[in-house]
Amino acid sequence: MANKEPLLALLASLNERNAVPAHRIGYWNDPEYHPGRPKGSRKQMFERNGNVGEEVYTHPGFVKHLRYMLFGAELPPAVMTAFASEVGNPEWVSYGDALELGRFARSLVRRHGLPPHEAYEEFFKLSLDIGLSVEEALRIRQTVKETR
After folding, report:
1. Do 98 and 132 contact (CB within 8 A), yes or no?
2. Cα–Cα distance, 3 to 127 (Å, whole number)
3. Mean pLDDT for the stretch of residues 66-76
4. Taking the alpha carbons of 118, 103, 99, 79 in that order, is the dihedral positive or negative?
5. What is the full DSSP assignment across 54-120?
6. What is the pTM of this model?
7. What residues contact residue 86 under an 8 Å CB cut-off, 6+ apart?
8. Is the confidence at residue 1, as pLDDT, over 80?
9. pLDDT attached to residue 36
10. Hey, what's the torsion of the CAs at 60, 61, 66, 72, to 10 degrees?
11. Listed range (37-46, 68-77, 92-101) with the worst mean pLDDT
């Protein structure tokens, strides 16, 4: 990868400054944030495929994860605003509320013509960014994933 040195320097700088929110690091490192099979974090998936050390971070597949770490969920601004407004104060959201929020997110997917097979993961990321728990975000993710 031609950008290996600048990429590694960027990651070192982000790490030194604690510039990436903890939930975005968890999205990469924590198996709890990565449901399904096979089990393991997103980082562990790279390692299982033979990438070790710096190779994990210079693999072309890492770029989409880095993008999330830097910029957050990739949804249209109107969708993110509507969803955040529906959530309100994340401290008041329960696991039961997450089902209704998932249904609302599903309606946004339909209304804005978003591809469900991409949108469900972005709603998971957005839910984390808003401040919902991993469990609540996973419930929203699953509801959006079931969009037909």
Report:
1. yes
2. 31
3. 97
4. positive
5. HHHHHSGGGHHHHHHHHH---S-HHHHHHHHHHH--GGG--HHHHHHHHHHHHHHHHHTT--HHHHH
6. 0.93
7. 101, 104
8. no
9. 83
10. 140
11. 37-46
